[in-house]
Amino acid sequence: MNKKIKLLLEAAKKVKKNSYAPYSQFHVGAAVLSDKGNIYSGCNVENSSYGLTICAERNAIFNMVASGEKRIEKILINGETEDFLPPCGACRQVISEFADEDTEIILVNGKEEIKLIPFKEIMPFRFFLKGKGDSI
Fold first, then answer.
1. Which of 13, 50, 63, 123 has the fewest CB atoms within 10 Å of its CB?
2. d(CA 136, CA 133)
3. Which pTM does this prediction carry?
């Protein structure tokens, strides 16, 4: 495991402990590495009105944006399951706003096994408004 991934995993595991998941008991931590080399983390926060729940990935990205950054180099998602947890559709769309085709999606399961996926493979047909830029 390279140093960047190790730092992202440590951040995701630490914040996962703060996850608020009283309904699903499904705890997830995520960490984003910005293009400026900074790490931002987030956990899932559930609500009894499930539509108001926020995923760990979006929480981490929104922390990055709130800190003044706008580009994702890597995003790591860590759950407690045997399977890898790919981002949901809503998270994929939010990632696409701040990522490029080669942004690295790093999935880490409960056994700390790692799967690396370039963003273009996880979301080959991106939605963006005209003016966002076809080059992304």
1. 50
2. 6
3. 0.92
